[in-house]
Amino acid sequence: MKHITLFILLCWSACTFAQKSAVFRIDSLPKQGIVLDKGWKWHAGDNAEWAKAEYDDAEWEGIDPTKEISDLPQLKNAEIGFFRLTVWVDSNVLNKILALKIWQTGASEIYLNGQLIHQLGTVSQNQNQEQTLLVQGTPYSILFTKAGQQTLAIRYSFTSKNILLKYRPVNYIAFKAVLGDLDAANQLYTKDKVFYTFLSYYKFGILLFLGIIHLLLFIMHPSKKANLFIALYAFFHSISFHIDNNVSTLPITGEKLYWYTHFNIVAIILNGIFSLLTIYAYLKIPKQKMFWLMTSLLVVAYPFCLSFPTFSIIFTAFIYSGLLAFEAFRLSLSHYKQNQTGVKFITAGWLAYIIFMGLFYLMIFGFLPFNLMLSNLFANLGLLSVPISYSLMLAVDFAKMNRELSDKLLEVEHLSNEKQQLLAAQNETLERQVNTRTAELNQSLETLKATQAQLIQREKLASLGELTAGIAHEIQNPLNFVNNFAEVSTELVDEMAEEMSKGNQEEVQAIATDLKQNLQKINHHGKRASSIVKNMLEHSRTSSGQKEPTNINALIDECLRLSYHGLRAQLRGFQADYALHLAENLPNLSTVSQDIGRVLLNLFNNAFYAVYEKKKQLIESGTEAHFAADYVPKVTVSSCKTETGIEIRVKDNGTGIPEALKTKIFQPFFTTKPTGEGTGLGLSLSYEIITKGHGGSLSIESSEGNGTTFIIELPFNLKPKT
Amino acid sequence: MNILVVDDEMDIRTLFEQKFRKEIRDKVFTFEFAYSGEAALTVLQEKGSNIVLILSDINMPGMSGLELLGKVRGIYPEAPPKVYMITAYGDKENRERADVLGADDFLTKPIDFSSLKEKLQ
Fold first, then answer.
1. From CA A511, how far away is CA A517, in angstroms rounded?
2. Under 8 Å between Cβ of A17 and A181
3. Domain A544-722: homologous superfamily in CATH
4. Regarding the domain with residue range A2-191, which homologous superfamily does it belong to in the CATH classification?
5. CATH 3.40.190.10 fits B2-120, yes or no
6. Which among A173, A451, A685, B87 is placed 20 to 30 Å from A181, CA to CA?
7. Chain B residue numbers touching A487 (CB-CB < 8 A)
8. Do B18 and A492 touch (CB under 8 A)?
9. Each residue of A383-405: pLDDT tens digit?
C-alpha cells in the first residue's frame, strides 16, 4: 500500500508542477516552478559529444521524458541515450542558484552547456555497472551564469535488466525536471520530507514502543503469550513502517529499493501471522482453518512475490491484508459477546482498519474525490488502529487483572485480619487454659509434695513398725536381766542375812560383792533398754539434719540387731545367719546419724527380706532339707576404711536382683514386695540421704538368684551435694 | 551334772552362777558357758558326753539355737544330752520347730529359775 502512496505522491507532484508551455523562455520563476516537459530531444546511444552545447541535435526525435518508461519504447529498447533541451534564460535569473527538482526511474548525468552538474546513480549500458537511483522530487542546484540560450543534456540509462524491473511494473516517469526557486523548493521538499518522516517515525516509534512494552510484559508474565505475539506483531509492523519511510522519502538506489521491498513483504506477512496469533492467544482458542489457509497461501505465494513484483503488491496489500482483516474481524466479532472487554477493542480496531483502509483505497482508485491529507489520515488511522486496539485490549485486560488482584488482596487482607483476630482469640483462650492448667498443676504439685511428705513419714513409720518387734526383743533382753538380777539379788540379800546370822563373814562379803555387781548389771541393762527406746524415738522423729561425730561400727551393730530381731518377729519362720566384719579403729564420721541409721536399717531389712524370700521360695518349690542343710540364709555386714572414706558393704545370699530391675530400684515407689508391704520409698530415700545428704555413693552388685551387695561409700570430708 | 548354757548375752553366766550358787558350791551342777552356737559345738567336742544338758537360746547371731539343736542331734545319735530351748519368743512356730528337731523342753525368757531348778532336780 505504501507503493500506492508513493504513486499518488508522484501524480500529485506532477500535477502541481505541470505547465503546458511549448517554448522555454525562463524570464521569471513562478512560485510553483517551471516543469521542463516540452522541447526535449532524444537519441539512443552513448556519446560524450552529445552533452555539449554546440552539438546539433536537429535530427534527434522529439520526446516527453516525463512519461512512464513503459510508454517510451525507444528509451526502453535503447537502454542508454541522451535527452537534450534548449532553454532561453532571461538575465533576471542569472547568477542565482536555482532548484532543479528531479524525478527519475533510472540513472542519469545532468550536463549544463556540456558541463556535468549532477550525477544521479551510475549511468551505464552494462547492467552490472548501472546503478539506478529512484529520485522523487529532490531539489538539485543549478546556476545560469549567462543569459540567452542554454543547453541541458541528460545522459540517461535504464537497462533491460534494471533491478527495478524485478519487482514492480515500470510505471514511473523516466525523467522529469522542474526548475524553480531553490529556497521555495527546499522549503517545500523539506516540509514534505519532514511531514512524511515525522509520520513514518511517529508510527514506527509507537509500534516499537508497544512492542517493547508487551515484550517486557511477556518476560514478566510468560504465561500471557498474547503479549509475546503482540510484541512480535508490533516489531514487524514497525519494521514495515521504517522501510516505508526509507522508500518514500529518500532518493534511493534500485538495489536498496528491491531488498527493502522484500523485507517489507516478509514483515507484512509476519505481522499478519502474529496479529492472528495474538487474537488466538487472547481468546484462548486453537488456530483456525483460516490461519493455516493463510500460512499455506504465503508458502505458495511468496516465490511468486519474488518473481512478479506486481503480484507481491497486490498480494500483500489486498489479498493477504484483506483476508487477515476479515478473519481477525470475524473472530473478534464471534467472541464479542464474551465477557472480555478486550474483545470489544479488537473488534473495534479491526472494524476501524477495514473502514479506514477501505476509504483510503476508494480515494486512491478514484471512487471518492482524492485528498492527500485525508488519504494519509485514513491510511495511518487504519494502520494504527489495530496495534493500538491490541494494546488497549491487553491494557484493559491487565487493568481488570489488577483490579481482580486488588480485590483478592483486599479479600486476603480481610481474611488475614479475621485470622489474626481468631488467632488472638485462640491465643487468649490458650493462655487462659495454660493459666488454669498451671494453677491445677501447682495445686497438684502442692498435693504431691504433701503426699510425698506423708509418704516419707509413712515410710518412717513403716520401718518403725518393722522394727517394733526387734525393739521389743532388744528391750526384752535387758529387761529380763533387770528382772533376773533383781530377783537373784533379793535371794542374795536373804542369803546374806542368813550368813550374817551364822557369822560367816567371808560369805557375807562375797554376797555383798555379787550384790554390787548385780546392781551394776541392773543399771547397765536398764540403761541399755533406755538407749533402745531413745533410738526408737529418734528414728521416728524428723531428722534434725545436724551432723555429729558418729561411730559407724556402733551404728551398724545397733541397726543390724534391730533389723534382725524386728524381722524375726515380723516374718513367720524367719531364720537367718548374720555376720559382722567391722574394721577396727574406724574414725568417727560427721553424719546425720539418724539418717545413716535409717539407710542401714533399710539395707539390712532388705537383705534379711531377700534371704527370707529365697528360703521361702526353696520351701515352696519343694527343695528338701530346707531347714538346716543346703541353704543357709546369711547377711554379712562389713566396714572398712578406704583412701577417701569409709565403705560399708551389706551382702546377702538371697534372691538377688534381676538385671532389668537394677536401674529401677532407686526410683521412688519401686518395690518388689507384695502390695501393702513396702512403700517403695526405702531405697530411694536411702539413695538421697547417702548421695545428696552426705556426698557419698550407694551402689549395687547383684546376681539374680545368688544374692546382692549394697555398697555405701561415705567420704571423710562429707559435703552434701547441692 | 554338767550343763552347757548357750546364749549370746554374756551376763547369763553371772546370772546362772548366782542363781545356782549353792549347787555349784556343792558341786551338784557344773556349768559350761558358750556365747554362740559355734562355740557350743566346740565345748561339746571338748567335754563330750560329760554334758548331760544343753540350755540354748534360739536367737543368736550366726548359728541359731535351732541349728545347734539339729547339729547336736546329728552328733549324738545315741544317748544324746537333753536340750532345753530358751527364747524370748514363746511363739508357736519356734516351739513346733524345736519339737521337730527334738528339743526336750522349751523355756521362755525371762527364765523362771525356780521352775528350772525343779526340772533339773
1. 10
2. no
3. Histidine kinase-like ATPase, C-terminal domain (3.30.565.10)
4. Galactose-binding domain-like (2.60.120.260)
5. no
6. A173
7. 113
8. yes
9. 888 888 888 887 887 888 888 88
